UniProtKB/TrEMBL annotation, chain A:
Protein name (database record): ABC transporter
InterPro entries hit by this protein: ABC3_permease_C, MacB_PCD, Macrolide_Exporter_MacB
Domain of life from the UniProt record: Bacteria
Primary location recorded for the protein, binned into one broad class: membrane
Organism: Streptomyces minutiscleroticus
Alphabetical list of Pfam families matching this protein: FtsX (PF02687), MacB_PCD (PF12704)
Domain ABC3 transporter permease C-terminal: 269-390, 718-833
One Gene Ontology CC term in the entry: plasma membrane
Family: Belongs to the ABC-4 integral membrane protein family.
TM regions (residue ranges): 267-291, 314-336, 356-380, 406-427, 439-457, 490-511, 714-739, 766-788, 808-827
A GO term, aspect molecular function: transmembrane transporter activity
Automatic annotation (TrEMBL), chain B:
Segments forming domain ABC transporter: 15-252
Name the record gives this protein: ABC transporter ATP-binding protein
Keywords noted in UniProt: ATP-binding, Nucleotide-binding, Transport
Listed InterPro entries: AAA+_ATPase, ABC_transporter-like_ATP-bd, ABC_transporter-like_CS, ABC_transpr_LolD-like, MacB-like_ATP-bd, P-loop_NTPase
Keyword GTP-binding: no
Amino acid sequence: MFRTALRNVLAHKARLLMTVLAVLLGVAFVSGTLVFTNTISDAFQKSSAKGFDHVDVAIRPEYRESEGDRLAEQPKLTRELLEKAAGVPGAASAVGVVDGFTALAGKDGGPAVDGFQSRGGNYWGEEDPRYPLARGRAPKGAGEVAIDAETAKRTGYGIGDTVRLSVDGPVLEPTVTGIFTTDDGNVAAGGSLTLFDTATAQKLFHKEGAYDEIDVRAASGTSQSALRASLDEVVPEDVGSTVTGRQLADEQAEAIASSMEGMRTGLLVFAGIALFVGTFIIANTFTMLVAQRTKELALMRAVGASRRQVTRSVLVEALVVGAVAAVAGLAAGIGIGAGMRSLMGSFAATLPDGPLVVTPGTVVAALAVGVLVTVLAVWLPGRRAAKIPPVAAMSSVHAAATTRSLVLRNTLGALLSAAGTAVVLYATTLDGTSGQAPMGLGAVLLVIGVFVLTPLLSRPLVAAAAPVLRVFGVAGGLARRNSVRNPRRTAATASALMIGLTLITGMTVLAGSLQRSIDKMATAALKADYVVSMANYNTLSPEVAEKLGETEGVTAVSPLRNAPARIDGATEYLTGVDGAAIGELTDLAVEDGAFEVGGARVVVDDATAEDHGWRAGSRFTVAYEDGAKQRLTVAGVYEGNEMIRGIMLDTAVLAPHQSDPSDMQVMVKTAGGASAAAEDRLEKALGNNPGILVQDKKDVSEGIAQMFTLMLNMLYGLLAMAVIVAVLGVVNTLAMSVFERSQEIGMLRAIGLDRRGVKRMVRLESLVISLFGGVLGVGLGVFFGWAAGQLVGGGMATYELVLPWGRMAVFLLLAAVVGVLAALWPARRAARLDMLAAIKAE
Amino acid sequence: MTTTPTAVRTTAVAARATDLSKTYGTGETRVVALDRVSVDFRQAEFTAIMGPSGSGKSTLMHCVAGLDTFSSGSVRIGDTELGALKDKHLTRLRRDKIGFIFQAFNLLPTLTALENITLPMDIAGRKPDRQWLDTVIDMVGLSGRLSHRPSQLSGGQQQRVAVARALASRPDIVFGDEPTGNLDSRSGAEVLGFLRNSVRELGQTVVMVTHDPVAAAYADRVVFLADGRIVDELRDPTADAVLDRMKRFDAKGRTS
């Protein structure tokens, strides 16, 4: 039996090729993901473990909860504690760590690296064990810095050069005195690290007299745990906690592993989709092979093979195909893993070096996935093969594909679809988190339901295309009839494409709608011409708002200043604004009272008002961070959004109670509105600051759009695999159809259909099948996009459904292109068919 | 041997093969399928081509009908020389000038009987001549079954659809490749009757390859082929006369 199966595989090499390719792609995706994430994870872990070489025990500050109407004062790791720690028995030395954001400008004046990757910190004393100096000496005082060697190389800065940088607004121009090397993960990933002397760093990062962490080294002969034990005695429990270097490394490794886990799961989901699509093709191929071999299989039954033996022979065939594809897929996957790393290394992020990691787990997973998917997909065709009666061997009539009734199938499909739709609709009435599970369940039910229904749907949808096909004359008419000739096969082929397009369309609809709503949120309520913020959305020094206010042509300025406070025994964040200017800078809808900020009169967003049961005229007591209390009156309730919300009060009222005020952003209105000249003036006023973003509404919109475009492009890239697998399916179905209909095609050629006509007939059939899948996919995608939008966007006031008609047209066009491409080879084969051999063949 | 000089007949020639040869392979494996065959098929005449298996009868028909290429010689359909035509023109010629009836019915299962009948004209983008179409359909007795699909028709009925398809576009000549080979004798007789009627009543030219002497007896003339050559010809044949001749060739073939 095994030999028969093997012979069959070899005999149908060409026809199994597409199946092998489909499985291969899926397995390559899975193993590529595993190899890539393992390799990256391994490299990151090795490089970060090195980063903890100089720490034996770290002291980290405790977080204190606020109680009553008083904000808790957070504990500080002070110099005193550091000295105490350095003095414990077994301690060799201690280093105070300070870090924060520091934007460094390149020689061209622009930021040297992306905002989120530019870090700053402190250089400890004369010789910091963390940062061995390659050249120069340690920075001293406010006018000196040290930079990492990678950044020095990239920017071209050397010892003695003056660099421009900014921490929270004001531009500083220190001199580079040292260049150091580091194992810092951020630097390894392409970021920059700028170091000040410790006092300067504490001042710049608003951490005066405090460290973020104290790293203690053990004297030789003292173990990490012994040192930790002795440190625990000097570090008060409510100030800090201790952790050994090994624990830190483990924590880090775990963090990396878990962040990689997320990425891996994400990628595997897409690999799963590609494999799922692949199963349709595998099942389709084997169904066709079994149908073509009816006589042969019946003969086997007639000469005494049992049903089980027939099924087994088909399954063994699948096993061989799956194994071959899985091995090839694993090889391709290892290649993809290596390729992805160098691809990511060549742009975007720099990744730490490390060997390619292929674990036994990867190998086993890849092989198991390939073989299991294939064998499972072939289960049904295999069972069908066993049902062929032995007498079929004797019948002279070429047994056509089964024409079993679709009634049962349609009923089942209708029930599943209805249930799926109902569950999805129900999920849209729930809120974000609780609706996710029913939404997912409903979506899966509906997709399966539609798949089961596709044979039924194919008739009316293909009939709808008839007027267009008629233009192509007899080839069009024949293509239309051929495409509904075997509804099951057409359905399976179209469904493969449908799944990819459903996801692509759904994502596009959802992303487009969210983008519009976030864009609206960010800009609709904004009357300001410019929004000024730090490049990494860190806080700004109040100096920035002051400078902007003094700039020529500026008519109104207000910061959005964040300040924690206690109200009714809970921590609330107050938003400090310039009460006189805020009315000109925002256009928030007022639900109750008046939009009036000044003195003790404040405005509150609708959500906060509802939480506290406030209305215009309500009064409440606030306890500021310095402990002072004040009675405030709600002047009005406004409609809040994701950007502007909370309790707004005048900065003049807030300022006396804040020790270290900082602004989230500054809104600016200029005479004559946004213009290149105005933007230029603002940037100049801020000293052409490398760390600050001056954005007009368009920039804000574009920033949001860019984020969504990036995300969508990644999704498109990942879903492209599912579409490619679907194309293989269309090629396969067409090739099989051409093969089965060679006699007909020969007859058509004999009675006068020319080669072009034959080609056109095959191509149009392919187009019909692909567009059928495309229409279903886009339709389902819109529905899911709408439903997911209801769920996600339900909480957003500005959410509205945006149907990307242009994109949807592109997707249908894509389906058409898939159809045309998939038909290239089968159509050529059909046109080249030997007419006489086809006619004579019986 | 009665090799009647064809030039004597005054009726026009629908198709003519002159010195037609077809060989496969080269050197020692060279097989001669047709060896300098010259034959005329006159208009409004029903010709049967007979011969034992491997005699080249099917090859002759395929070459004359523009389905197959030949090695040397000439084939003319009406005034058109086939040897010079590329596939595209040959296809058009088959579509416009020639009708085909195959042994294995060869209908499209997705089309109705009527759609199958008008298929060659649909391919050409021509409107069928309604009156002629009705005449043909009446003759083959399919009026009641035009909307049936091939799977709903019997073998005989299917072949009648094929006959109607071959005749419907008023081709210059109709070729049949064992048109009764897959039919029981009653259905076969019906189909042959239609073919003869189309010649007698409608003036159609029909050429049919067969190995059945009874079928050949429906023809006006039988051409005998053996080893790629025309070896004999019989006018107004009867089944017995055809069988007699066949036996003679067999005997000759065995003794030589």
